[in-house]
Design brief:
Blueprint lengths: L2 E8 L7 E10 L2 E9 L9 H7 L3 H4 L5 H14 L2 E3 L2 H14 L7 E5 H8 L8 H8 L8 H18 L7 H6 L1 E2 L1 E4 L2 E3 L2 E2 L26 E5 L7 H11 L2 E2 L9 E4 L1 H7 L6 H11 L5 E4 H9 L2
Parallel strand pairs: 1-4, 4-5, 10-11, 10-12, 12-13
Antiparallel strand pairs: 1-2, 2-3, 5-7, 6-9, 7-8
Length: 304
């Protein structure tokens, strides 16, 4: 079972702003090579929040090469091994956007995601973020430094593959009900769960202990963006078990719009999803809709 685990850190919210990459090459379930590179982003703008997370700033990378130079050293590995990342939708997006920025062809390779695998296997965890899983599995982590995150991702993947007798990258699809992601010169196909989207009306939940004192009791809740703490279906079940209602789309009857933390941070910078825009329209018409971050939702749920 051979692959490369990767992790990017970015200077700001733009996906084409990598400031560090970590790579761990795994062959036969063993980590055989570890590399990390600091990167000078093309615009070299560092958001203070990002620097707070990973400790990398403009001065840290002022003498480092840009990504196109570093990729010359990595191209062969990227084209020779499949890739794995934790929350691969982010890291592969950083890779794609940055390659686009420098007009470099995508490597011909497959990829998958330990975040998605963990959601399928580690039932009962409240959060599937990298630091939460590392704490659960007893894996050391210097979070938000690329090499440490890549090592942790590699270790999670090795344990999952060994425990489930996965000996080839192709077997991921059958074992975990996941579609393997693909990169190619012509584009990409995302890694995703194979199952079709669930219907809210088909969700099974315990309706024996409604909580009339909850702010969500009798209210209609809509979710938008990717939740970091749980899959959307589990969040909807939590609302239903309180005695609330869930809907897929924002309407005049919507009371709460819950935004995944990553999109909520982007909202502060001006980003608005179609659901956010629709909620603003109804709010301007006099309807009562409250926007909550995922963290606020969790706090309110846990206080019930």
């Amino acid at each position: 079972m051979d692959f490369i685990a990767i992790d990017f850190e970015t200077a700001n919210s733009n996906r084409e702003s990598p400031c560090e990459i970590g790579l761990v090459r795994v062959e036969g379930f063993e980590m055989v090579e570890k590399q990390s590179f600091l990167i000078r982003p093309k615009d070299n703008y560092f958001d203070p929040y990002n620097t707070f997370l990973h400790g990398i700033s403009e001065s840290t990378v002022e003498n480092e090469p840009e990504f196109d130079e570093i990729y010359k050293l990595l191209r062969k590995d990227f084209e020779s091994y499949p890739l794995i990342a934790h929350n691969a939708s982010f890291d592969i997006s950083v890779l794609r956007h940055t390659l686009n920025l420098y007009d470099i062809d995508y490597p011909e390779t497959n990829y998958s995601c330990t975040y998605q695998m963990s959601r399928e296997l580690l039932k009962g965890l409240f959060s599937f973020k990298l630091d939460s899983i590392c704490k659960y599995l007893g894996i050391e982590l210097d979070h938000h430094r690329a090499l440490s995150d890549a090592e942790a991702c590699a270790e999670i993947a090795i344990r999952i593959f060994k425990d489930n007798e996965v000996t080839s990258f192709e077997a991921i699809s059958q074992k975990f009900d996941l579609r393997i992601g693909q990169l190619s010169k012509g584009g990409y196909r995302p890694s995703a769960k194979k199952s079709t989207r669930h219907k809210i009306s088909d969700l099974e939940f315990d309706d024996s202990d409604f909580k009339p004192d909850s702010p969500f009791y009798g209210q209609t809740v809509v979710f938008t963006g990717t939740l970091q703490s749980m899959v959307r279906k589990d969040a909807q079940i939590k609302v239903l078990e309180i005695g609330g209602n869930c809907s897929r789309g924002v309407t005049v009857d919507t009371n709460y719009l819950i935004v995944g933390d990553q999109d909520y941070r982007k909202f502060g910078e001006g980003f608005k999803s179609s659901k956010m825009k629709k909620a603003e329209k109804y709010l301007a018409q006099g309807n009562s809709i409250e926007l909550l971050s995922e963290s606020q939702f969790l706090e309110m749920i846990n206080n019930d």
